[in-house]
Amino acid sequence: MNPLFRAVLSLFAAPRVNMREDYEKVRRRQRRLAALPAPRYQASDWQVPSDDGDHRVPARIFSPKKRLRDDVLVFFHGGGWVTGDIESYTPACATMADLTGCTVISVDYRLAPEHPFPAGLQDCFDVARLLLEKPWLAGAPDASKIVLVGDSAGGNLAAVVSLLLRERGQRGATRQIRLYPVAHWDHDPASSPFASVRNHGEDYRLTNAEVQDYFELYVPDPEKRRDRLVAPLMAEDLSGQPRTLLITAELDLLRDEGEAYGRALEAAGNAVQVHRVDGALHGFIALPRFSRSLREAYEVINAFLGDTAAEHPSPQGLP
């Protein structure tokens, strides 16, 4: 990479905060940023009963300005299982609804460290299971129209939810979209098997230290971090998974593990499409709509969802 370009990109590196101590400050900052300026969107809030009946999982339903298809995108947000929520992801979900023409349901799963693994995973599983069993609750004509989507830690949760649905013999999604997902447990540049951890773990949007903090908050027991329900790349059986679109970012430390997971899914007999967005940083799904990285990703997403230029306008043609 051009040294000058590298220096400029380093300005966008993640803040050097101790996530283990400052996660509450990060949450508040994310909400403030998401509210400036206030996004225009059509949405309604919903409460999904948990499977054990002891709490309800909040969700926000985003309607597109123009509905182009019957698919319902069930979205699990990123933030290292520690930050992120309905409010901070509202701009991204409103954009997702408009640029795909789909209803988007954003799941406000419980966060660590207040609720460590597997609390957040269980919330995502409960919502996905309910909507796949009763798709009409989401306004979908049938379960084939329920698409699991997640970015970063949310992409990890989408992967694990799909594994659990198959393992428990329950109806699974037919399609899933994972954006720069967490798939492995080791992000130490000295021991990680992935070059992107060494090449992109210090200077850009997400750092090795930040990922390590997230893991320590989400899964305090180091041995459990190798479990397939935390690091799905460790799963011994990846058969029977939904048709998958996996999008990675070139300058993201998670790039190689995400692409490795895509290859592992394909080797297990699943239909997989992997697309790398060149020049993109981690978290680009939250960028403004004029972002090249965002536009490229939605071109690929719309094609995956069955969109064609003859039937619907391209993302560039949407407001």
Automatic annotation (TrEMBL):
Gene3D superfamilies: alpha/beta hydrolase. This is Alpha/beta hydrolase. One of its GO terms (molecular function) is hydrolase activity. InterPro entries: AB_hydrolase_3, AB_hydrolase_fold, GDXG_lipolytic_enzyme. Keywords: Hydrolase. The keyword Transcription does not apply. Residues 73-285 form the Alpha/beta hydrolase fold-3 domain.
